[in-house]
Amino acid sequence: MNKVLIANRGEIARRIIRTCKARGVATVAVYSDADKDLPFVREADESVHIGPPPVPHSYLNVEAILAAAKSTGADAIHPGYGLLSENEAFARRVLEEGLLFIGPTPEVIGQMGDKLTARRIMEAAGVPVVPGCEQAIDSPDEAAVIAMSIGYPVMLKASAGGGGIGMHICRDEAELRQAYQSAKGRAKAYFGNDAMYLEKYVERPHHIEVQVVADQHGNVIHLLERECSIQRRHQKVLEESPSPFLDTATRELLCDAAVTAAKAVGYSGVGTVEFIVDEQKNFYFLEMNTRLQVEHPVTEEMTGIDLVSLQLDIADGHPLSIKQEDVKALRHAIELRVYAEDPVTFLPSPGTITLYQPPAFEDVRIDDGVETGTQVTPFYDPMIAKVIVSAATREEAVYQAQKAMDHFLITGIKTNIPFLKEVLQDEQFLAGNYTTWFVTERGAASSNEKR
């Protein structure tokens, strides 16, 4: 592998460029009109314009990306996360063009991208799944019958979904019937597939995921877990590892289940197995992300292992250079996602950044994609930076995170930094006592105090 085209943008493109440069691998950036002045375009060895700002005309334009790879002589494509990273057809086209796809096979992407298929594979492998239906639901009437058999509350989900889009908690039949058509419509609009299914909704759950790594020679290991329960609108905003909720025995069972899941689907590459964990520490398979996660730096800072470097090795056909017994939680790591959004309503806040000054401290890593003068447009995800801190203990890591956020200056746009600072001061968070209901419960408590 001599030259990698990065089919992505912003901070993840810069992240991949860093490791490629360290390994002496050349890089090619692709960019839209809106991104022509962003740092990742300058930092790549070459860059190719691929179209106007809307993603269907640029970052989802498969033929434009493949043409860029061909014209620059790239021999591999890294899809990053989001966009085309879990697109089975794109991975297949990359291979058909004689290029390396840095990720699993198209078949595995397809199987794990269909949540109903993934459930069936995991059940057959003995990995616990949340009680739910096995086939797509055809009508609100059928949904009501299935929900009655499962028992309310239920979670209505898109089979092709991800990122919390199309998910709806339904606590009774009326709510289910009302949500069905709108959720189906959103699924069709976002994923091109409106197949829906139902799962039992687990109350006050933890969202915990396990990083897995598998080579093309059948070797599969895990890199421990990430606690991802601080979420708004089903989307993560803070992740940490190790999880303050898990005990040693549950952690071992959870990580073993993730390895079983990866083996069951014949996985190769870097991937993540997500679980929902109830208050009694029972865990259930949620989904598998067949790509690099946004929160992968948490694992990197905890273990000292470069996941992008592992991806390049695996795509190049090398066997894993680390064994399971080599993987240790050397430090406690926390990641905070900085979004260009209103810190109260969480609505996007596009505009021009008039001052961008990230914190610069030892053990504070900044993965970002913007600078002073960058225009944050409404065309893309509003995440502009990730702050990753690590320390010997959770208490020290939280202190580092508080200090880092106090020294992060961004003007010209609204950001969620005030919200993140509140989370870091919250008594329940400091105690490590939180679930995916954290943001909702804080909002309710705040409303009660104002009355």
TrEMBL record:
Task: Could you list this entry's UniProt keywords, alphabetically sorted.
Answer: ATP-binding, Biotin, Fatty acid biosynthesis, Fatty acid metabolism, Ligase, Lipid biosynthesis, Lipid metabolism, Nucleotide-binding
Recorded catalytic activity of this chain's protein = N(6)-biotinyl-L-lysyl-[protein] + hydrogencarbonate + ATP = N(6)-carboxybiotinyl-L-lysyl-[protein] + ADP + phosphate + H(+)
Task: Provide the Biotin carboxylation domain boundaries.
Answer: 1-444
Q: What class of enzyme is it?
A: ligase
Is the keyword Transmembrane assigned to this protein?
no
* Keyword DNA repair listed: no
- Tell me the function of this protein: This protein is a component of the acetyl coenzyme A carboxylase complex; first, biotin carboxylase catalyzes the carboxylation of the carrier protein and then the transcarboxylase transfers the carboxyl group to form malonyl-CoA.
Which PANTHER family does UniProt cross-reference here? CARBOXYLASE:PYRUVATE/ACETYL-COA/PROPIONYL-COA CARBOXYLASE (PTHR18866), UREA AMIDOLYASE (PTHR18866:SF128)
Q: What is this protein called?
A: biotin carboxylase
Domain ATP-grasp stretches? 119-316
Mind telling me which InterPro entries this protein's record contains? ATP-grasp (IPR011761), BC-like_N (IPR005481), Biotin_carboxylase_complex (IPR050856), Biotin_carboxylation_dom (IPR011764), Biotin_COase_C (IPR005482), CPAse_ATP-bd (IPR005479), PreATP-grasp_dom_sf (IPR016185), Rudment_hybrid_motif (IPR011054)
Subunit note:
Acetyl-CoA carboxylase is a heterohexamer of biotin carboxyl carrier protein, biotin carboxylase and the two subunits of carboxyl transferase in a 2:2 complex.
Which source organism does the UniProt entry give?
Brevibacillus antibioticus
In the record, biological process GO terms are: fatty acid biosynthetic process
Provide any one GO MF term from the record: ATP binding
Annotated EC: 6.3.4.14
Pathway(s) served: Lipid metabolism; malonyl-CoA biosynthesis; malonyl-CoA from acetyl-CoA: step 1/1
